Amino acid sequence: DAGITQSPRYKITETGRQVTLMCHQTWSHSYMFWYRQDLGHGLRLIYYSAAADITDKGEVPDGYVVSRSKTENFPLTLESATRSQTSVYFCASSSPGQYNTEAFFGQGTRLTVV
Amino acid sequence: RKEVEQDPGPFNVPEGATVAFNCTYSNSASQSFFWYRQDCRKEPKLLMSVYSSGNEDGRFTAQLNRASQYISLLIRDSKLSDSATYLCVTHSGSARQLTFGSGTQLTVLP
User: Fold this and answer.
1) Integer angstrom CA distances of residue A35 from A47, B36, B76
2) Which of A98, B60, B75, B86 is the most buried (most CB within 10 A)?
3) Closest residue of B to A95, CA-based?
4) pLDDT tens-digit series, residues B33-69
5) B-interface mutation test, from A32, A100, A102, A110, most B Cβ less than 10 A away
6) B44 → chain A, closest CA residue
7) pLDDT, tens only, A29-54
């Protein structure tokens, strides 16, 4: 099915473990983004990518790594999970367009670090 | 100071009421503006874009004041199904980044 999908939807992990959140889109959108959403902070940008092999830091990149070897995939890795990374993570994609470009979001991954 | 500021609410209004949300942004380089809607525990979805001339989509009216860096959303004749969090969003064109406000929670009561 066309769209943007995230996996897993729910994840519980222990402090110090490496965790990878997957994001896959079928529209061939150039731009992809990772956001985290926390109470009181709203959605904050972690990393974004303008195209395959092009990534850049957002507002809160520390503790995260991304890669984009293929246009359709944009995995997010927590190298050594900490409790402060407990959050809801949203992946999004959009197509190039100068103005009023809609971003489409995946359903989110709820991550709990214990 | 946050780049996009919204009144968090919550706004609790009766069905049929008119409710207005306001938002201010600090990045004068912002090029595009949106309202997104987020239902509880779901992903954000685009509600409408916001144009300088103001725009309307059914019961929803959005306004932009670039001089004051102010965005508004008016919902007329509120429905129960309008209950959600409304996110004010700006777009920085160079990096295609969307910057979100923290959202305003709306509950429409029967």
Assistant:
1) 7, 15, 31
2) B86
3) B96
4) 999 999 998 999 999 999 888 899 999 999 999 999 9
5) A100
6) A105
7) 989 999 999 987 789 999 999 899 99
